[in-house]
Amino acid sequence: MSKLQKPKHHIFVCASFRAGGEAQGVCDRKQAKSLIQYLENEIVDRGLDDVLISSTGCLKLCDHGPVMMIYPDNYWYGEVNEDAIDEILDALEEGEPASDYLFAS
User: Fold this and answer.
1) CA-based angle 78:29:59, to the nearest 5?
2) What are the pLDDT digits (tens) for 76-88?
3) What is the CATH number of the domain that holds 31?
4) pLDDT value at 1 more than 80
5) Is the separation of the CB atoms in 18 and 61 below 8 Å?
């Protein structure tokens, strides 16, 4: 049995899911699901094998949506779009936050 490799970073993206399973809210209306797919593609293209991506229920930060958080760094990014993802991943590869989109750390 092979040993599970623990990810270096875990990226959580708000997908506005509610307890009933329906996506509703700012992040969903601002295309968070397509951003998750873009993020997945970028992770693969960049060879970032040590990064895991998960969609989440509502993170209750709608004023900043779409919202993305990187663990264990505790970087919270808001108003994320494809350009933001590119900058965030560039910064992640350099070991620092992408300050233009950072609203909490």
Assistant:
1) 45
2) 999 999 999 999 9
3) 3.40.30.10
4) no
5) no
Token code pair at residue 17? 């899911």
**Does residue 33 belong to any structural domain of this protein?**
yes
Cβ contacts of 49 within 8 Å, gap of 6 or more: 5
Contacts 24+ apart (CB under 8 A), 74-81: 74/104, 74/105, 75/102, 75/104, 75/105, 76/102, 76/103, 76/104, 76/105, 77/101, 77/102, 77/103, 78/103, 80/13, 80/35, 81/35
Q: Are 80 and 88 in contact (CB under 8 A)?
A: yes
Single-letter residue type at 11: I
- Provide the residue range defining the domain that includes 69: 9-104
Residue 22 or 77, more confident = 77
Cα separation, 79 vs 57, in Å, equals 17
Does 57 fall in a domain?
A: yes
- Cβ atoms of 65 and 30 within 8 Å: the answer is yes
